[in-house]
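Page 42, continued from yesterday. The earlier attempt failed because a stray header line got pasted into the input along with the sequence. Redoing it now with the clean sequence only.
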Amino acid sequence: MKNEPLFPELTAEDTSELTEFRQYLHRYPELSGEEQETARRVCEMLAPTKPDKVLTGLGGHGVAAIYDSGVPGPTILFRSELDALPIQELGKIDHVSTVPGKAHLCGHDGHSTILLGLGRIVSRARPARGRVILMFQPAEENGAGAAAVVADPRYPEIKPDWAFSLHNLPEVAFGYGKLGAGPANCASRGIRVKLTGSTAHASRPEDGVSPMKALSELMPAIEACRSNTPLGPDYSLVTLTHCSMGAESFGVAPGEARFMATLRTVTDTVMTDLVNRVETLVRETAERHGLRYSWEYDDVFPASVNDADATAILLTGLERAGLQHELQTLPSVGSEDFGWFGISGAKSAMVFLGAGPDWPRVHTPEYDFRDELIPIGVRIFSETLAACLEKN
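This time it went through. C-alpha cells are written below.
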C-alpha cells in the first residue's frame, strides 16, 4: 500500500498528561523483576486507548497491548522497558525518586511513556490491516526480561514480523537519531567464579589448600583474554569487578576465593570463544593448584543487531518525522536485551534518540529523562509504523 495515511500528532493536552505520567513513574521506581505496580499503572493508562487485548504478567511483569485490525497484515511490535536501577538519585528535581536506593536513571520511564503516547495515536487512527503490539518489557537492566518474554508460552500470540525500539542517549545531539544496520549493542555477561580448597590455622598454612596463588594468577590472566583491538567484529573485553578470599581473620589461612568479571564482545560468536577461553583458564589453573571450582553466569545479554530492512524502515520513520540523523558505524559498548526479539525471528532495529551532550549521562545519579523527547519519540514510532505498513 502506497497511500497509507499519516498518523495524527499528539495534542498539547496529550503531551501534558504524558509528561505528568512520566514524572509519576519516576517517583516510584521498581527494579528488575519487581515492576508489578509500574505494570498496573501502565495498564490503567492504556485502557482509554481500547486495545483489543492486553496480556499481563508476560515474562514476569511484562504488558503487551494488542491493536488488531482484523485484516491480514504484518504484526509490528514497539518495545519499551519498565525497570529502574539500584542507584540513589542525587538530582535536584521536583519528581525525585521516593524510594531510597532506587531510581529511573536510564530513561525507561520515558521510553514507556512514549509507547503510551503511541497507543493514543493508534487508537485514533487504527491501521487498516495487520496488528500493532505495544510491548512494555520487564527486567531489561539485568538481561532477563526479553529472554523471559520470548520464552513465555503466550509469546506466539504476539510474535512480531517487525520489532522496533529506541533508547535515549545524551551523547547524541538533542532530537537527532543515531542509527545503522548491523551491531547496535555489544553482547555481555557476568561470570561468578568460586575456587574451593580447605582452611588451616594461620600458623600451619601447609595443612590446608589455599586459593591465594590461583587467584593471583587468574585475575591478570582473565583480563588478558581481551582482544586489545579497537571496537570492531573481533573486539572483546574482560573487566574484573569484584574478588574476595577467606574470612576476615588473622588466625585462619583461606580455603575459598571468589571473583566476578564482565565479558563483553561485539558478536555472539566471539562471545562463545571468549567464554570457552575463560572457562578453560579457570579449570586448568584450579586443577593445577588442587582446587575445586565452579562458575555461573548472570546478566547475560546477546548482541543486539539491527536488521538491514528494519533499519531502512526506521530511517524512513526518522526522515518522515523531520529528524536529522547520523549513521551508527560502531555498536554501543553497553548492552541491551532487545536483541532477543531479533533472535526470536523478527526483523528488528533500535534507534538512539539524542538527549543532548549537555544532559547528564544515563546511570549517573543526576540523570533524569528529558521530557521534550516524548512527542519526538512518539512521532518517530508513528511514522515508522506508517512506513512499515507501506512496505508490507
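Notes: The longest strand covers residues 187-196.
Reminder to self: strip header lines before submitting.
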